[in-house]
């Protein structure tokens, strides 16, 4: 779960990095641009997969105050 | 519900009633053993480790009736309702309990009294008439304002600290506790678990004092606040199991695949402090498991919210290793627990919004990134297409040129071949023509020849010099027969032969002019 969360945060940050790269280029190198786009497209896909609606899990904790 | 969870619920109620921690009622192991052996009699219950006479007297009835009800419900199934079953079961359980020894020692009697008294927990309001603070215990007495009714009270230091109040003579307070007889002197006093100031005025004063104190310590400083992490997944939820707050939170938090762990706690009044505090500690035992700790309850008066103004709880929230979102409703005064939390909102719904916020922003962020990527790549594709187009034209041109060259080569070859073939054919033709000509015989040959002669004759006639003579021109020749064209070619004395249109005359050069 924790890795998953980090990877979503990271994916989006990476994705935004790619967008920034695109926006920072005066003249986009075709080969590099296509490579970046490919990476971006797969990040969009994986991020969307985690961002879509997923049912929550709910549990009530066991109060174990014996150890307290 | 399983027997063990039923027993645990009962224990929570009992602990809350007495204002003690859960294990002081019965430890988990004892509950588990009860659930295991399902005692039906006093003896069976007493065989459980941790349950002696004292505990038995205090809780025996409760436990046996829970077990009996559960066993009967199990046996009969869901056909008969709980109430119908419990009547018979409880009656038999109670009968088993009500066999009390006849003769008692003083100590036994006092124990028995104390057990009865401990079940008489009460909430009492009065004025402090004396205070004696000792190391481990604070003794004080309460009396009514109207008459002189007085009761001695004691509170353990830990509970006193937890209560977060400092009482002084004359304070109007409310205490919660149960009566107890101190066996060495037979005096009755109220064992207090909780002290709170009575009335909004006193509460307000205590609130302001604590607020000032914590502010001086810098506990509310903005730089202490941590950001609520992006995309929180595991949410620690601290609130009441029932009530509107949890419903509001759950409905509005969205479905983002959270794992929500609820630590059920009462949230009402000051007694909530124990459970709230336990909850904050419970989650903080493993802070790495949770992304955010959400503490919520609906709004209320200062009195009903005072648990959240308790110093011990406020400090626990401030020390939480998990970022805390407080959605503790308030009217005028923000609770101190909310002030030290990392994020503070006024309602459970607002707390849920804070939790789901980054998820919703995530959607937008990915959406806009995708949009930019798409437009950039379509620019790229257009550029590529243009580049391809250019390359295509260049290629076409080169191809055309190559085609041209190939055609020239082929043509040249063909031409050579033709020429060669033509040459050969020409030779062959001329040979055969010659042969044919020979065969055509003389007549044809002569015909051709006479034609040619005629043409030559005509040509010759055209250039016949006598035609010029006829026109009056004369032809002058020198003696050697050469035609005289320039006067300088003649010398005096030369003989000239002049031909006229008709006839000729001889002449001599007398003078060259």
How would you describe the overall organization of this protein?
- The complex is a heterodimer of chains A (about 70) and B (about 525).
- By secondary structure, chain A is mainly α.
- Chain A has two helices and one strand; from the N terminus they run ααβ.
- The two termini of chain A are about 30 Å apart.
- Mean pLDDT of chain A is about 80; it is low at about 1-5.
- Chain B has four domains: about 5-100, DNA polymerase, domain 1, CATH 1.10.150; about 120-195, OB fold (Dihydrolipoamide Acetyltransferase, E2P) (Beta Barrel); about 210-355, Succinyl-CoA synthetase domains (Rossmann fold); about 470-510, no CATH class.
- Helix content of chain B is about 50%, strand content about 15%.
- Chain B is built from 15 helices and 13 strands.
- Chains A and B meet through helix 1, helix 2 and strand 1 of A and strand 7, helix 11 and helix 14 of B.
- Strand 1 of chain A pairs parallel with strand 7 of chain B, so a sheet runs across the interface.
In short:
The complex is a heterodimer of chains A (68) and B (513). Chain A is mostly helical.
Descriptive tags:
heterodimer; A: 68 residues; mainly alpha; 66% helix; disordered N terminus; B: 513 residues; alpha/beta; OB fold (Dihydrolipoamide Acetyltransferase, E2P); Rossmann fold; 4 domains; 52% helix; 17% strand
* Radius of gyration of chain B from CA coordinates: 65 Å
Sheet/helix structural class of chain A: mainly alpha
Low-confidence stretches of chain B: none
Structural class of chain B: alpha/beta
Beta-strand segment tally of chain A: 1
Q: Major sheet of chain A, described briefly?
A: none
Strand content of chain B: 15-25%
Q: What's the arrangement of strands in the largest beta sheet of chain B?
A: 1-2-3-5-4
The rough form of chain A would be described as: elongated
